[in-house]
Amino acid sequence: MAITTIILGYQDTDSEKGIYNFYWSGINAFWKNDKPFGFKIKQPIETKFNGADGPYVYKDSVFSISKNNALSKIKLDTSKPLTVVTNNTSLPSFTVSLNKNLSQENDHYDMPKKLIAISDIEGNFDALYSFLLANHVIDKQANWIFNDGHLVCNGDFFDRGSEVTQVLWLIYHLENQALLHGGKVHFIMGNHEIMNLYGHIKYNDQKYIHAAKQICKTKNWNTSIKQLYSQDSELGRWLRTKNIVEKIGTIIFVHGGLNKYHLENAYDINELNTIARKYYGKVPSKANIKNDRDEIIVSGINSPFWDRRLNLDTKHKLALKASGIDINPTTQETVNAILKHFKASKIVIGHSLVNDIQTDYNGKVIKIDVKHGLEMNSGKTKGLLIENNNFYKINDLGDKLSLKH
Questions:
Q1: Rounded to an integer, what distance in angstroms lies between the CA atom of residue 254 and that of residue 155?
Q2: Residues 6+ apart with CB under 8 A from 17
Q3: C-beta neighbour count of 53 within 10 angstroms
Q4: Are residues 348 and 233 in the same domain?
Q5: How far, rounded to the nearest angstrom, does the alpha carbon of residue 329 sit from its chain's CA centroid?
Q6: Together in a domain, 16 and 117
Q7: What's the total number of domains in the chain?
Q8: Please, are residues 103 and 241 in contact by the beta-carbon 8 Å criterion?
Q9: In the chain, what are the helix, strand and coil shares in percent, each to the nearest 5?
Q10: Where does residue 51 fall: left (phi above 0), alpha (psi -120 to 50 degrees), or beta otherwise?
Q11: Strand, helix or coil at 77?
Q12: Could you tell me the residue range of the domain that residue 74 belongs to?
């Protein structure tokens, strides 16, 4: 342990204030360009831009960061499209027209002839673009060509990756285009979307914190991210129209899962979404949670966007137990009862990693959170296709294999 600390370092940070309570770089800082060498105690953490980012529509302005790390600001003109710059050589940029009529999404839809679902992209633009291109959802210029098909983005498109903003604008853009062709893009809120609305920045690339501080004129890290995705921003307003659960045909799409508490308390899908939306941007606490029904939906492991009981591995079970939370996997009997209550045939979840797109609970749960490839056409970026009531696993090479269920 001591040798590891000497080599790799150790840090204790205060993310609200953006300071190191204690920092030791480790000797590997000598060969790591992004790691300052030495000790720091109660010192500010330096953040910086790191390549093209944005645009951020905040209040009446548009902010963009160039590939040379220069921040620009222009007055917002809603009649003109925004340009989104990427690091993808096949699609260096694309344009997005702002939707002047953002409105709350429905949570029940008919099943289309074709539906594709993908989850947990986590700021990986190349993977998402490659996957959509290979499966004929978009053309090379990122135009919708999926006609009246539906695309479900099943949560956690934020955090960890370095092109979160580009990913969000691509989905926003496709949502607008899909409607013109009779199609639909569904964006289901995952725990990382919710966390960014709260201002929780634990998994943010620091360039986003730097952008938020500069744009929102704040020093507090959590406050800056919360403001960047507040109702004063276009992406913040857009995210607030989204649901945590949707039912398409007889299939439920939810990021984390549904559990015995949702069954025992007889929630319906509309109430799940209504409760969650009340707390978008407002960190749940004993002081502001209004009642027990709200607490189940927005607090911790019982929330539909946090629950892991439908895919509970040993690592997460032990981690939760160490935090004083002892949970067990959902039983087949409870899954059957949940589906009966919601008048559904299957539940599609992300959130909890699996080796491949797969089914569980006698085919009644489909798990689609896989470790996507970091580059285009890797064969590792995968999703689900439902076509004429048949189920397939698909990837960013265009492969299509029947999913046993």
A1: 8
A2: 219, 220, 221
A3: 26
A4: yes
A5: 24
A6: no
A7: 3
A8: yes
A9: 30, 25, 50
A10: left
A11: coil
A12: 53-87
Please answer whether residues 239 and 197 qualify as being in contact, where contact means their C-beta atoms are separated by less than 8 angstroms: yes
- Cα(320)–Cα(306) distance, integer angstroms: 12
Verify that 66 and 40 share a domain, yes or no: no
> CA torsion, points 7, 8, 14, 20, in degrees to nearest 10?
40
CA distance 351 to 370: 9
Cis peptide before 55 (omega within 30 of 0): yes
Do 23 and 68 fall into the same domain?
no
| Alpha-carbon gap, residue 339 to 325, rounded angstroms | 26
- The token pair at 53 is 């980012």
Query: Considering Cα of 336, then 342, then 343, then 346, what sign does the dihedral take?
Result: negative
Return the sign of the alpha-carbon dihedral for residues 204, 78, 147, 113: positive
Phi-psi region at 147: left, alpha or beta (left = phi > 0; alpha = psi -120 to 50): left
**Contacting residues for 61 by C-beta, under 8 A, at least 6 apart:** 73, 74, 75, 76
CA distance 72 to 62: 8
pLDDT digits (tens, 9 = 90+) for 229-269: 999 999 999 999 999 999 999 999 999 999 999 999 999 99
Tell me phi and psi for residue 70, to 5 degrees. -100, 130
Q: In which region does residue 170 sit, left (phi positive, over 0), alpha (psi from -120 to 50) or beta (all else)?
A: alpha
Domain harbouring 334, CATH code: 3.60.21.10
Residue 266, classed as helix, strand or coil, is: coil
129 and 255: one domain? Answer: yes
Q: Do 239 and 269 touch, CB atoms closer than 8 A?
A: no
Asked if 20 and 68 sit in the same domain, the reply is no
d(C-alpha 349, C-alpha 367), whole Å: 5
Sequence-ordered strand ranges (E) for 313-357: 346-349
Nearest CA among 15, 2, 6, 4 for reference residue 39:
6
Q: Tell me: the pLDDT tens digits for 281-332? A: 998 888 888 899 999 999 889 999 999 999 988 888 887 777 777 889 999 9
Entry pTM = 0.93
